[in-house]
Amino acid sequence: MTFTIDFLDDGRVLEWEATDDGATMTERDDYTPRFFVAARDPDTDIDLTQLHSLYERHPDVVTTESVSRRSGFRRDDEGALAVDVSHVDRITPLARQAHQLSAYPVGDLACFNVDFSREFRYCLETNRDPTPAAELSTLRLGIPVTETGQDTYSELTIAGETVTGSAGDILTTVQAAIETHDPDILVCSTSEIVPTLYEMATAAGVDDFSLSRWPDVDYQQLASRSTYASYGRVGHSSARYNVPGRAIIDESNTFFYRETNLDGVFDLVSRSKKPVQELAWASIGNVLTAIQICEAHDRGVLVPWNSWRHEFYKPMGTLHDADRGGFIFAPEVGVHENVHELDFSSLYPNIICTRNVSPDVIRCDCHSDRDDVPGLGYSICDDRGYLVDVLQPIIDARDEIKAAIRREKKRDDPDEDRLAELEGRSGALKWILVACFGYQGFSNAKFGRIECHEAINAFAREILLTAKQRLEAGGWRVVHGIVDSIWVTPDPDVDDDDRENLEALTTAITERVEIRLEHEAHYDWVAFVPQRESNAGALTKYFGKVADNDEYKLRGIEARQRSTPSFIEDVQRDCLERFDATRSPDAVLDCLQDAIKRLHAGTVPIDQLVERNRVSKPLKGYTQNTRNVAALKRARDQDLAVHPGQNIEYVVVDDEKTSRERVALAHEEIESYDSSYYETQLIRAVESVLSPLGWDREEIRRELTETRVPKLAAYASTENS
């Protein structure tokens, strides 16, 4: 099976298939990608003759054909113009011309099957399965942060071995590794390694250097780097490069490979028809869209270039009711003993499948008199929606994988490689299922529809409320509930003999709502944290001790935040253990006090104080002298490439300053740190631990002021003796 595809400038296509003996290549010179043009409104009678004539004369068009196709899941076959193109890169420019013809009023024409990624399009149109038939070989190339943005490398990691020296030394070693491993996949810490190595070869006069399996092309640039904003977060997309005959995974620009593993990537390759390289680059929504496009293709439905689906009219009352998220029961701040966490399995995807929530069947004309969606009055057609056919196989597959994981873990000698494979696949499918709900409310989603998004939320609210009522009737008290999870503890006002068995209750609720309610965890205790500057419970900040286990579950607090230095994380975890063992604030404060002593004594290793923060804008876009700005200035001074959306790592050395001297970059030689700054961070972390007991940072500081000074003095005298 084809695992990567190359497109040459002259229109030829190279298919590469991995075998046990290496990769084999098939050359094709007859591939003509296709897009379609049709009336946007099915009731509009449009003569496509003039458009047909334009494309027939165009040098980039191979042929045109009048065909009959469905331009939507709810539409019958309609007349359309199919346009076969000489090269995949010419599809978008040609499609734009359809909107520029004066003969057709603006908005009357729509283009379909336009903005597909290249390899995905090829697999879809030629019915190629990009799932690797043999194990793919890999080779990793990596550079340290000090080499980013440099024109030449003095240090490079190749297959785990670090190489230093001249450009010639590094190039020779890379070439030898390529010839020895003959990798199907190049895993790069950044894709910029590819052009930089070739530039080094040119500068050094090394004529025979090559990463490519195709002698005529060294590499291709597919896209330039870019910065984007998504849901309030700035992201960075590195430039994308292609090396013929090999797939590239850019570790700085891959979600699924970073969050799962290669097995997770391969699983989604098989479901989406996006080959390895494109899958590694893709976002969750992009992969979900690809899976949906495959379903549309199988049903003979064209894919719109842009989403133009209008929102149906809703009266003001419906708009108010629909503009709500999932149900939330505010957590009771404090420490709760003997708590059980219950979760609905893949709630939103299962709502879609059990309630038949799909863009093509919601608010259908054939059942407009029915009120199928609770609180909103939307009808849902009895015909099976396409979205159900997309998600149900994924739900079933993940259930099977999770069952296999449980079986493997129960073995006396679990196969760790097998577990890694299963967990990678499960994680990849989890992300697709997580995204399917939000996708329906995304304005640019090709197959999204806001009414589906609203209906899913409405069903979710009803389901969680039903569960709450049934659990309370069975003698359990709900201490927190959010969207698909609910935490309960035995109701102290109900006798144990009168309380229903929790397993029996979850079974009854499952049968009632038709979605499995699972027992996620049993905790000896759970602490719900208040919001900062408020007594109300924070919805997603809590921690608890798992029953009959040495594990703690942490959500939202510092130890779960990627920016938190490892020293702060470790101290917070130590405080949690003290809290668990003693339930005593004094024991926690003793732990804090010991950590502060180490800070001020200067004995904390520098690498344990590194902060990792996302850069949200270019340096010139900042107006305040923040720590990030100081770090960016230092990076600029060292010619290091740090773009918006990427992370920067530094240690705070003097927080009183506003200049670049405020911090030092993690790779620099750092002799000291700002102990007062890190003390404040420690107190903030310990506040999270003690806040369920009513403590805040001011009270913590008062307690430390009363006890720390003499203890520190004693400590100092001990150190000096």
Question: Can you put this structure into words, describing what you see?
Answer:
- This protein has 721 residues and is of the alpha+beta class.
- It has 5 domains: 28-126, Alpha-Beta Plaits (2-Layer Sandwich); 131-298, Nucleotidyltransferase, domain 5 (2-Layer Sandwich), CATH 3.30.420; 321-393 and 441-546, B family DNA polymerase, palm domain (Palm domain of DNA polymerase), CATH 3.90.1600.10; 557-604 and 677-720, no CATH class; 607-672, Ribonuclease H-like motif (3-Layer(aba) Sandwich), CATH 3.40.1820.
- 38% of the residues lie in helices and 21% in strands.
- It is built from 20 helices and 26 strands.
- The protein has a 7-stranded antiparallel sheet with strand order 17-19-20-18-21-22-23. A 5-stranded mixed sheet has the order 10-9-8-11-16. The protein has a 4-stranded antiparallel sheet with strand order 5-6-4-7.
- Helix 12 (386-410) packs antiparallel against helix 13 (416-440) and helix 16 packs parallel to helix 19 (675-690).
- Mean pLDDT is 90; it is low at 310-314, 316-322 and 710-718.
